[in-house]
Write a structure and sequence with these properties.
The protein is mainly alpha-helical and 266 residues long. It contains eleven helices and two strands.
C-alpha cells in the first residue's frame, strides 16, 4: 500500500481536534510517515526536487498523499534529521546539498544506489568497505582465537562445497566476511559494513552477474585470505582482502556498466 493509494478513514486522522491517538492510530501514522518520507527522499535524490528547491507546502503534501498535517510535519522532521532539507518558518522547506546527506541512513543510501547511474556511489561504498575490512582482516590475523580459526577454516570448506550454487555461495560468502569482522573485535567497523553492505547487496547493480570462473576466482581469494590470517600475517591478510574486494567489484562493475550503457542506448 502506498501513500497515494491510501484513503483516510473517518476518525483516524492523526491530528483530529479533541482526540488522542491510540496505539493503532499511532502505528498507522508511523507507517504513513515512513511511506511519505521514502517518496520524498526518492524525489530529492533523483533531483525531481533539486538542490535549492522548496518542497510543496504542507496542504499540498497532505492532499497528494492523503495524510494529516501531523504526518507531514513528522515526515519533514525526519528528512531534516537525514540532512536532506532545512525547514524555515515563512520560507518553506528547502533541499540541501548532497554533501550533508546522511548516507548511512538506510532510506537515503537505498535511494542513492537506486539512482546511481554512473556507479559513483557504489564505487565509494566499495572503497569504504575495502578500507575497513582490510584493517579488520589485519587485526583478525593478530587476535583470532583457535576456535575462531577452526570455524573460519570450516567456512572456507563450505564455500568450496557451494561453488555450483550461486545463491548459497553468496550467503556463505557473507558469513565468511562476518566471521573475520567479529574476530577482529572492531564493533564500529562491523556495524558500518553491516549497514552499507547490506543495502548494497539488495541492488542488482552491486551484485552484477558473476560467471563460473568469477566464483572460482572468488574461492581462491577467500582461501588466500584465510591462509594469511591463520599464518598471523596481518599485512598479508589486509593485502589479500584488498585484492579480493576491489578486484571482485572491478569485474562486476564492468558488466553492470556495459549493461547500463546498452540500456541507455536502446
Amino acid at each position: 500500500m502506498t501513500a497515494e493509494s491510501w484513503t483516510p478513514q473517518p476518525g483516524l486522522t492523526a491530528d483530529a481536534p479533541g482526540t488522542s491517538l491510540g496505539p493503532i492510530e499511532r502505528r498507522r501514522s508511523r507507517r504513513l510517515g515512513d511511506t511519505v518520507v521514502a517518496h520524498l527522499v526518492d524525489r530529492i535524490v533523483s533531483e525531481v526536487y533539486p538542490v535549492g528547491a522548496v518542497l510543496p507546502t504542507e496542504p499540498e503534501l497532505c492532499a497528494e498523499f492523503g495524510v494529516s498535517r501531523t504526518v507531514v510535519r513528522e515526515s519533514i522532521k525526519l528528512l531534516e534529521e537525514k540532512g536532506l532539507v532545512k525547514a524555515t518558518p515563512g520560507r518553506g522547506t528547502c533541499v540541501l546539498r548532497p554533501i550533508g546527506w546522511n548516507l548511512l541512513d538506510p532510506v537515503v543510501l537505498e535511494a542513492q544506489i537506486r539512482h546511481d547511474s554512473d556507479l559513483a556511489v557504489l564505487d565509494d561504498l566499495v572503497n569504504v568497505r575495502a578500507a575497513l575490512e582490510c584493517d579488520m582482516a589485519a587485526q583478525c590475523a593478530r587476535v583470532i582465537t583457535p576456535d575462531q580459526a577452526e570455524a573460519l577454516t570450516r567456512q572456507v570448506t563450505v564455500l568450496a562445497e557451494t561453488l555450483s550454487d550461486p545463491i548459497r555461495y553468496a550467503a556463505e560468502d557473507v558469513i565468511f566476511h562476518e566471521m573475520i569482522m567479529i574476530a577482529s573485535s572492531n564493533r564500529l567497523g562491523h556495524a558500518i559494513i553491516h549497514s552499507i553492505h547490506g543495502k548494497a547487496r539488495l541492488s542488482s547493480r552491486y551484485n552484477g552477474a558473476p560467471s563460473t570462473a568469477d566464483f572460482a576466482q572468488s574461492l581462491a581469494e577467500h582461501q588466500q585470505i584465510e591462509a594469511m590470517i591463520l599464518r598471523g600475517d596481518g599485512q598479508g591478510a589486509a593485502a589479500a582482502m584488498r585484492v579480493h574486494i576491489l578486484g571482485s567489484w572491478a569485474k562486476r562493475r564492468r558488466g553492470v556498466h556495459d549493461a547500463l550503457g546498452r540500456k541507455a542506448g536502446s
